[in-house]
TrEMBL record:
GO molecular function, one term: iron ion binding
Domain of life the protein comes from: Bacteria
Protein name, per record: Carboxypeptidase regulatory-like domain-containing protein
């Protein structure tokens, strides 16, 4: 396993520059970042909703599932979670 890549920026540099543009390439492509927006029935984005994420098996059978994690929506109903590629997931939203 390779060493994790670290980018260290001093506080002085952050204060001096105010905006930093740091680009890097990550070798780990086992994950993807899923984002979305949760809406209320009236079409308004829902802030503070919980999204429970399960990994599912057996061709989408939602009875056979494993809890992956929970994320929450922020302003504008937006949420995000990092997931493994080549897996199947079921997302359940609670408000």
């Amino acid at each position: 396993m390779s060493e994790p890549k670290k980018i260290i920026v001093s506080g002085k540099k952050i204060i001096e520059e105010q905006i930093l543009d740091i680009s890097t390439t990550l070798a780990n492509n086992k994950y993807f970042f899923l984002t979305g927006i949760v809406y209320q029935p009236n079409g308004i984005p829902l802030e503070g909703a919980a999204i429970v994420v399960y990994e599912i098996y057996n061709d989408g059978d939602t009875e056979n599932k494993n809890l992956v994690g929970i994320t929450f929506t922020v302003e504008g109903g937006v949420y995000g979670i990092s997931l493994l590629i080549d897996k199947k997931y079921c997302l359940v939203t609670y408000s």
